[in-house]
């Protein structure tokens, strides 16, 4: 692929391909065609072939795709053929839920540091990791060469936490705070605004109700 620019839409579809291929692996399915993938995923067969061809020739005409090979190739494309050293900042209900998710599902994001400002939480141990004081965040991130910082604090403190993570040298930030962060070039940012998703769901329900009433 080199440095060919890949659209954000394709990037968003790749994890879905990976998830379905992983499911096929659990069922012992060895090969699948783009038409069969289309029926499972909901994208057109043409779209699937076009997306995958962005990164190379993974299938054969008349044969389809080898499930195991395609799964491994998408892992490589997504950078999931390695582990990432990760910290969580803000160990309230959401921070703990994310920590538990990454721990139990073993998805390659190794949380080695937990941070919080609440003295009642600092010192607690979650999945064998002790919660540290957020005052030590930047130094810890720099010393341990952390790849990813996960922000689960309130909007008032999110930018400050992001600045400390950037100063410590993280390569990416996964932000759950309800605010758009100002992040310099060279640091990847993925923000998850839960309220936005709920609002979109509300719109879809409203639209369905309107159509049903017509």
Describe the structure.
It contains eight helices and ten strands. It has helices at residues 8-26, 34-41, 45-53, 67-77, 93-105, 137-144, 155-168, 194-213, and strands spanning 31-32, 59-60, 64-66, 84-89, 109-116, 125-126, 129-133, 148-151, 172-175, 188-191.
Produce a short descriptive summary.
This protein is of the alpha/beta class.
Runs in which pLDDT lies below 50 for 5 or more consecutive residues are: none
| SSE order | HEHHEEHEHEEEHEHEEH
Q: Supply Rg.
A: 20 Å
Computed structural class: alpha/beta
Number of helices: 8
**Main sheet strand line-up:** 6-7-5-4-8-9-10
Nearest-integer average pLDDT: 93
Helix fraction by DSSP (H/I, runs of at least 4): 40-55%
Looking at how many chains there are and whether they match, the oligomeric state comes to single chain
Distance between the termini: 49 Å
Q: Tell me the number of strands.
A: 10
The major pleated sheet works out as: 7 strands, mixed
- Proportion of residues in β-strands: 15-25%
Shape: globular
């Amino acid at each position: 692929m080199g440095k060919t620019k890949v659209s954000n839409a394709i990037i968003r579809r790749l994890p879905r391909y990976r998830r379905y291929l992983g499911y096929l692996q659990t069922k012992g399915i060895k090969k699948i065609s783009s038409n069969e993938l289309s029926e499972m995923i909901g994208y057109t067969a043409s779209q699937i072939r076009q997306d995958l061809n962005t990164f190379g020739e993974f299938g054969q005409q008349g044969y389809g795709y080898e499930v195991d090979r395609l799964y491994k190739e998408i892992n490589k494309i997504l950078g999931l053929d390695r582990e990432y050293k990760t910290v969580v900042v803000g160990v309230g209900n959401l921070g703990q839920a994310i920590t538990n998710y990454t721990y139990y599902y073993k998805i390659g994001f190794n949380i080695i540091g937990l941070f919080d400002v609440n003295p009642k939480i600092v010192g607690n141990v979650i999945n064998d990791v002790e919660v540290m004081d957020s005052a030590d965040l930047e130094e810890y991130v720099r010393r341990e060469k952390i790849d990813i910082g996960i922000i689960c604090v309130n909007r008032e403190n999110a930018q400050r936490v992001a600045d400390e993570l950037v100063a410590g040298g993280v390569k990416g930030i996964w932000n759950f705070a309800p605010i758009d962060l100002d992040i310099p070039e060279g640091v990847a940012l993925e923000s998850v605004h839960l309220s936005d998703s709920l609002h979109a769901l509300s719109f879809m329900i409203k639209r369905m109700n309107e159509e049903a009433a017509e």
